[in-house]
């Protein structure tokens, strides 16, 4: 029988995980929940907290789920009065059947594995450019912030090139998109953040509208032109076009920005693994997967049961919210040996960082490829890498990464 103390600890852990700012090291909190139950019905949440690997994996793949964040957002009576919430609820990540399969098909037809593979050479060129910038700024021995120098602008430049967004506008779009994503948690934002998100979304819409008009006048070999072809064929309307373009932009950088910064920090905390990678570049693919597992850039997602289901031995009725805690699942000791340990050669089954089933992350292969390119460039370019000042973690619930990561570097 579970003790009252264990239940109190689990409820306290859930309350902390659901309250901004995002905690730097949330993993002991997931452990506290999992000690009570892998599928835990929380009185604090009024929902189920799912921390078991097999259970998160199974729930993510179920076709009878609805998008829980969408449900949470629409519980706000005035959601239609906010431009940021209206566009957010049209984003691919928030759609349910029958809209989701139709939009996913359109997105998959333009954001294809072939298009990602063909970007490899451009990604390598861009990565070298930003790592060269990092080296140049580090020449005098002063700390250089990895986030605005590489972790943010590199993936933004990649997705801008794919979409056809002018390079000069990329970081402006990034700033506006970051304002918008603060309301993507389903309720963990202030009224001030919502007002800023509304303002930034209107500005972002204006920029993308201009790009659409430019491509209507002259098509190019980019994703915006491909999306316009889908629009002109009647497969998506004006609002779907806007939602898809802005979502692809965000999905092209959000995970990778967090992944780059947390990976470098984690490697510095595990110098034996850093040296292993330097000595053996053949581990690059498994190293990136392990860093994605260990650091889980986006720590969870929410689903709503569309019908009665069985999960983890529990009968869960329709209409109940599930918090799929992917970061917790990625450290489940029932799945991974010594799960808190970084092991770049680990081979114990895949992580669940990119979700699964109908909502599997569309940008997963792009994030993998970018990390496989840029991380080896950084660790092999600099013989010495050290944290060079006070780090600042991101505060948005669900996003695990850095706002600032100052480093001192020498070649």
Automatic annotation (TrEMBL):
GO terms for biological process: cholesterol catabolic process. The keyword Protein biosynthesis does not apply. PANTHER family: BIOTIN BIOSYNTHESIS CYTOCHROME P450 (PTHR46696:SF4), P450, PUTATIVE (EUROFUNG)-RELATED (PTHR46696). SUPFAM superfamilies: Cytochrome P450. It comes from the Bacteria. Keywords: Heme, Iron, Metal-binding, Monooxygenase, Oxidoreductase. This is Cytochrome P450. Coiled coil: none annotated. It comes from Streptomyces boncukensis. One of its GO terms (molecular function) is heme binding. The lineage of its organism: Bacteria, Bacillati, Actinomycetota, Actinomycetes, Kitasatosporales. The keyword Iron applies. Belongs to the cytochrome P450 family. InterPro entries: Cyt_P450 (IPR001128), Cyt_P450_B (IPR002397), Cyt_P450_CS (IPR017972), Cyt_P450_sf (IPR036396).
